[in-house]
Design a protein that fits this description.
By secondary structure, this protein is mainly alpha-helical. It is built from 19 helices and no strands.
């Protein structure tokens, strides 16, 4: 589909090659910090909080906001703004609500490396820690979404076959995460976040010459969308995912709870002192605004300027080719690729850190008591790094057959996790009567009900299914905690903490 001259495609390939060399160098620089489990998983105190904030925003964005959402905008029009507005507004509110308490509690417990470990210590339960870490394996579908997004870019712009694009994306990410762990991931994501913010601003600026109309550019854009089809400017998309007020409310719930995703909360664990939380939150908010809200307008413009695309997820790359000179397109395409890689590396790190820290470590501590803590930790790091190969291979296998909708695949994967952890994490902040029995019941109820709603088509709208299953998980934790305390043997309670 690419209409770029050959020299521009060569320039993109050279920039990508330089990018791979650069991130591999950063990975090597991070190697000394990734020799322990805590260093591999968080790189706590090794990176500026301003960069950690940019990394948070870049990780939040992913292929969903840079490819999936513009693709949905191309299909369904302005109703998709309900999602993008929530991505900045309610998501940042969620970060403001959760960041300080989450950080303070892990500090009181001597530091933790992952969300499952945080929950395990909060409810004094290794079983819960292992259960949540198993739930995190749903993130592999999230990685598949990123692989598909990256391969779509390679196929659309450079002409690389889809399958080879998937292989390239998996190989690039595994190399530098395996070398440098969280240090490499945060530094590269921070660079990617800054590049994505610049690209997002350029997308909006370009509307003035592609759509025209001066300061009335948005009115003109919406008029042209209405001329194509009135549904494209409807407040709700009757045939799309944003079809009603309940759905919109569920989306806002999704955005505020999305901050609870393990690969995002791990960024908070990289902060060393309470004083550093403020620049981290400010940096996250600034970059979130640019990255989450602006790219979707490229999808609207693509519907006007590049109709008839074979795949809706090609909308943003197709618009960039239409709107910018070839040399600038090359730089911006690297920015879009950055959006994909910034989430992929965080997801790999989250899954593999949890395999080493939350599955292997608790089990080996019970079965091999003769080892020293240092031996346990070294083995956990080896397991975490080795599992990169396995997780990468699994995501590669699942990515070969392109899914129907990139955005919907990603939505399914993280909703299954959120519905399970929402009750234990939220009540872990504000309710000291929650116990291990309630937390375990909540994880099982929330995640299994979400799978039942979606797989048996009981609630076909993924957003509504997330809200209902999370509510069931929340209620079941309240009920199970009370019942376990009232009728069962005395449950060891988690200690009080500031909320």
């Amino acid at each position: 589909m690419s209409t770029l001259p050959t020299w521009t495609i060569i320039l993109i390939v050279l920039l990508l090659a330089s990018y791979v060399v650069g991130v591999s160098y950063i990975g090597k620089r991070g190697a000394p910090y990734s020799k322990t489990m805590a260093g591999f998983a968080t790189a706590r105190g090794k990176v500026s909080p301003w960069l950690v904030g940019a990394s948070f925003a870049a990780t939040f964005a992913s292929a969903n906001l840079y490819l999936g959402l513009p693709g949905l905008a191309y299909q369904y029009g302005i109703s998709v703004l309900w999602y993008t507005l929530g991505s900045f507004g309610t998501a940042w509110i969620g970060l403001l609500l959760f960041a300080k308490t989450f950080w303070k509690y892990q500090k009181e417990k001597g530091g933790v490396s992952t969300l499952p470990e945080w929950l395990g210590k909060r409810y004094n339960s290794k079983t819960l820690q292992i259960l949540v870490s198993i739930l995190l394996l749903f993130n592999i579908y999230y990685i598949v979404g990123q692989n598909v997004g990256l391969a779509t870019i390679f196929e659309t712009i450079i002409g690389i076959p889809y399958e080879w694009g998937v292989v390239a994306g998996v190989m690039i990410t595994i190399i530098y995460i395996g070398l440098g762990g969280a240090f490499a991931q945060i530094i590269t994501d921070a660079f990617q976040g800054i590049l994505m913010s610049v690209t997002s601003v350029l997308i909006i600026v370009s509307l003035f010459w592609t759509i025209g109309g001066g300061f009335q550019v948005f009115d003109r854009m919406f008029d042209q969308l209405a001329a194509i089809h009135p549904s494209l400017v409807s407040t709700f998309s009757a045939e799309g995912p944003y079809d009603s007020v309940p759905t919109v409310l569920a989306i806002q719930f999704l955005m505020i709870s999305f901050v609870l995703m393990p690969h995002l909360l791990n960024k908070i664990l990289a902060i060393e002192t309470e004083k550093e939380l403020r620049p981290f939150v400010i940096s996250s908010g600034v970059h979130l605004f640019f990255i989450s809200y602006l790219p979707v307008f490229g999808g609207f413009a693509a519907r006007i300027l590049v109709p008839g695309l074979a795949e809706a997820d090609q909308a943003l790359p197709a618009y960039l080719i239409e709107a910018f000179p070839p040399a600038l397109v090359a730089l911006m395409i690297v920015g879009v690729i950055s959006a994909v890689l910034s989430s992929t590396d965080s997801l790999y790190l989250s899954i593999t850190s949890s395999i080493g820290n939350d599955i292997y470590l608790p089990l080996v501590q019970k079965t091999q008591s003769r080892l020293t803590p240092a031996n346990y930790d070294q083995r956990a790091v080896i397991i975490a790094k080795s599992s990169l190969i396995v997780v990468g291979a699994a995501s590669l296998y699942l990515s070969i057959n392109r899914p129907e909708s990139l955005a919907m695949l990603i939505q399914f994967s993280f909703s299954a996790i959120i519905s399970g952890v929402f009750g234990p994490v939220l009540l872990g902040y504000f309710w000291n009567k929650g116990n291990r029995t309630g937390a375990i019941v909540s994880v099982l109820t929330g995640s299994l009900s979400y799978l039942a709603f979606t797989q048996f088509n009981l609630l076909p709208n993924l957003y509504i299914a997330l809200f209902v299953s999370s509510a069931l998980g929340f209620i079941s934790m309240l009920a199970a905690s009370y019942l376990a305390t009232a009728f069962g043997p005395k449950v060891r309670m988690a200690g009080k903490h500031s909320a």
